[in-house]
Amino acid sequence: MKIHNVILTGGVGSRLWPLSRKNNPKQYLPLFKGKSLFELTIDRNLKIASEVIVVGNIENKSLTEDLLRKSDLNCTIITESVPRNTAAAIAFAAFSVHPDDILIVTPSDHIIENEVAYEKAMQEAVKLAIQNAIVTFGVVPTKPETGYGYIEYNDSDVISFREKPNLETAQMFLNKGNFLWNSGMFCFKAGVVLDELLLYNPEIYHSSKKVWEHNCNGDLNAELSLLIPSISVDYAIMEVSKKIKVIPSSFEWSDLGSFEAIYDYLVSNGHTTDLNGNMVIGTEKFTAFLGVKNTIFVATDTANLILHKENAQEVKNLYNRLENENPELL
Known about the structure:
Layout: E1 3-8, H1 37-45, E2 51-57, H2 61-68, E3 75-80, H3 85-95, E4 102-107, E5 111-113, H4 115-130, E6 134-139, E7 150-154, E8 157-162, H5 167-176, E9 179-189, H6 190-200, H7 202-213, H8 222-225, H9 233-238, E10 244-249, E11 252-254, H10 259-268, E12 279-281, E13 295-299, E14 304-308, H11 315-325
Helix pairs in contact: 3-6, 3-7, 6-7
């Protein structure tokens, strides 16, 4: 039995535009003491997983290869010609290994601190996975966060998965005390997750299997891939399987999916703000703020963004508008 860290790198980080672009998404930006989130993900799991499988899209392949050249890892790269969501991505990784191998599935764009607690949670998950459980990791919430999904739980049993709530609902979850942030990380045997996919979503199973059988050195056929339903692993397996277990985890975690999260992380690591909490990202030029508080100025060569920290979730709407009006800026 081998333990593999499956790293999903397909996201574009649209809520971090203009820092994150399609040709250089957030997981590859060296914003974290000279390292990228992708590199931190690899480093974090080396003590647990001896092998690495990277599943990403064709646009990210060269970025992945460039970073992997720095390391001496036994790594498999699976390249999707067209993205088909996380159920298919995980299926490809599972088809590539022995059915009894353990997969620890992690996004490539999360920041995690308190690695002792992280390793403890992972070791507990591996033990459960060996017993054929499908394990998800829930993070004990520290505030009523509206940008995350939630897991309602009792001990290690999942009662329900909840979509991203509004603020009132998030506060209710926090008050109840039996809700966790859904981290989007999983642990299971390859064969077990494939069996559950076959049971609950046979169309995804069979179409993904056909694509994998026609792969060329990990590169996946675009025409066959389009036949795979685009469904998340949450919908395809996690919300329907009877084998789900959750590990309530105390490590510090963020998907850094918004400028509010980036702001909080940078402040905690010494990034300067002015007396009114205003922050500059991306330029060393003198920048002055007058009459505003908690404002973030994001500078890049081709586009700038100015926003109140509290409006960070609205960047996604701006990104969607730019897709129609100025796609060259993405």
